[in-house]
UniProtKB/TrEMBL annotation:
Membrane topology per record: Multi-pass membrane protein
Intracellular or extracellular location(s): Membrane
InterPro entries in the record: Cl-channel_core, ClC, ClC-type_chloride_channel
Bilayer-crossing regions: 58-75, 146-171, 214-232, 252-272, 292-311, 318-338, 350-375, 382-398
GO cellular component: chloride channel complex
Origin species: Mycolicibacterium helvum
Coiled coil segments of this chain: none
UniProt key word DNA-binding: no
Superkingdom of this protein's organism: Bacteria
Name this protein carries in UniProt: Voltage-gated chloride channel
Principal subcellular localization: membrane
GO terms assigned for molecular function: chloride channel activity
Keywords assigned: Chloride, Chloride channel, Ion channel, Ion transport, Membrane, Transmembrane, Transmembrane helix, Transport
């Protein structure tokens, strides 16, 4: 083994370790903010929101939004915050402190109840730590990009305990490369990160599968869901793009704008306590078949609207779990409607997650990753991976067919 390969191997171990620490740290801070905001000691965020007083539900997210807005105003007036993709691809060291502070503000806002994903923060923090930890090694520009891209995937893997999903995220979405060096690095770093974060995450499966009776006919039904998943996914993307294009500028207006968004979700949570947070609460009740047709329909409309409201106010956060939650709500609407108004009976949890996989395939343009990620979140029977893959591939292929020829992309 030559010196370059030896240093690269050491860097892989360091990236996995640091990404695991980043995932553990952001998880601890997120839970601390959630417990402080809603004043609860045990249980999930949904338990905390449901058990808190109406005043705390409204005021908590508003205060969290104001503090995050203040932090972003102070941060952005001095340093523009690059996107993680730009930071990974840029030559030279990252803006580590800027990215780390931005990640901390994301955790603060999501923990206070904002309708944004929590996965953006650990990806940024892991990449920043990885850049710092490997800065003294003699790495080529190509190896550095591979390591930082895999750090982002490993950060995602650590917080959700999804080693395969984190690795495939780095390969398909961040780096878009199937080179052996990339694949091996992604698998090793994500596995190490999940193991390092295990004392905090306890390797808990984010969603608890109810183990109901299932039919293989679900695969055909998942394909029929493709047009609906496509419509929801495209609508979600367009709404988020519009919100970001018209967001509040980097002025002091960030403070009242994000506070107002927090107040909005806090007031609405009085009737729909599933709305605050990244979307896990919606996924949890969808998998548990705990939604009525009316509540699923309302959440289907409000979850993406509230996510767009935070983006419009100038906030930053992940969009994976809000998209998943929106898709799961759509799946619940379809399954409950079919079970109520037709002689056919379908499994609500399976249909909800299949639709979630289809929507995620559209929002991330990665059907294989979407199917695997959704399966790994709940660990249902292995054959349901075929169902999720059918929904994701069906939606993605239909999306490609409906696009002009110049815009079509091969699945990656």
């Amino acid at each position: 083994m030559n010196r370059r390969d030896l240093e690269f191997a050491c860097a892989i171990m360091a990236i996995g370790l640091l990404a695991g620490l980043a995932g553990a740290a952001t998880t601890l801070v997120l839970h601390a903010v959630e417990h402080l905001t809603y004043h609860y000691s045990f249980g999930t965020l949904l338990d905390g929101v449901s058990g808190s007083s109406p005043v705390r539900r409204a005021v908590g997210p508003m205060i969290g939004g104001a503090l995050a807005g203040l932090g972003w105003w102070l941060l952005r007036r001095r340093n523009p915050v690059p996107s993680l993709t730009d930071a990974i691809n840029a030559p030279g060291p990252m803006q580590r402190l800027t990215l780390t502070i931005d990640a901390g503000l994301q955790v603060l806002l999501v923990g206070a109840g904002a309708s944004l994903g929590r996965e953006g923060a650990p990806r940024q923090f892991a990449a920043a730590l990885g850049d710092l930890g490997t800065s003294r090694l003699a790495l080529t520009a190509s190896d550095r990009r591979i390591l930082l891209g895999c750090a982002a995937g490993a950060g995602l893997a650590a917080v959700y305990s999804v080693p395969m999903g984190g690795a495939l995220f780095a390969i398909q979405i961040v780096l878009r490369s199937w080179r052996l060096r990339t694949v091996g690095t992604a698998l090793i770093t994500s596995s190490i990160a999940v193991a390092v974060a295990a004392p905090v995450t306890r390797l808990d499966v984010p969603l608890h599968w109810p183990n109901p009776e299932l039919s293989y006919l679900l695969t055909g039904f998942a394909i029929l869901l493709a047009p609906l998943a496509l419509a929801v996914g495209r609508g979600f993307n367009r709404l988020m793009d519009h919100a970001r294009a018209h967001r509040v500028g980097n002025s002091w207006l960030l403070i009242p704008a994000i506070a107002a968004a927090g107040l909005s979700i806090g007031v609405l949570s009085h009737w729909w306590p599933e709305l605050p947070g990244n979307g896990k609460s919606v996924l949890t009740v969808s998998v548990a078949d705990g939604l009525t047709l009316a509540s699923a329909g309302v959440i289907l409309l409000l979850k993406p609207l509230l996510t767009a409201l935070f983006l419009r106010a100038g906030a930053v956060g992940g969009l994976l779990t809000p998209a998943l939650a929106t898709g799961a709500a759509m799946g619940s609407v379809v399954a409950i409607a079919v079970n109520t108004w037709t002689p056919v009976t379908v499994n609500v949890p399976a249909v909800s997650l299949a639709c979630a996989a289809g929507v995620l395939a559209i929002t991330q343009s990665a059907p294989a990753w979407a199917a695997l990620f959704v399966w790994e979140l709940a660990h249902p029977p292995l054959w349901l991976l075929i169902v999720f893959a059918a929904a994701a591939a069906g939606a993605y292929l239909l999306d490609n067919l409906l696009k002009p020829r110049a815009e079509r992309k091969p699945p990656h």
